[in-house]
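Support request, please re-run this one:
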Amino acid sequence: KSEPLVRVCPLAGPQNLTCVSYKHPSVRGALGGAGGAAAGAVRCPPGQCCVGIWNRSHALVQGCWGGRGDACPSATCVPSPAGHPGSSVLLCLCHGHLCNGNAAGTATATGTAGGPG
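Re-run finished. Output below.
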């Protein structure tokens, strides 16, 4: 069995978070809670938190984390490498409103940064 990528920490109570919702055009397939090419916001079901996945230059996917809702260690997005060490893919799970819209260490926080807003 492989070890989970994140530590499990309880959420600060059952709440319906609002998360940034975005899916980069290069990402294929249906992803729950992730919107289309234009960034927006989505209200997550109770117990879920926000997720953000970036490469080093732009957001790939942002939305609700439908896995274990208690796996979100921080109220802010603190990205860590996903997969093997040195990976260019960064992942964060967080439990603050719209917390997945801003990730330190990425060139672009959301898919619309630098675009019309």
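The first strand starts at residue 18 and ends at 23. The domain at 18-94 is CATH 2.10.60 (CD59).
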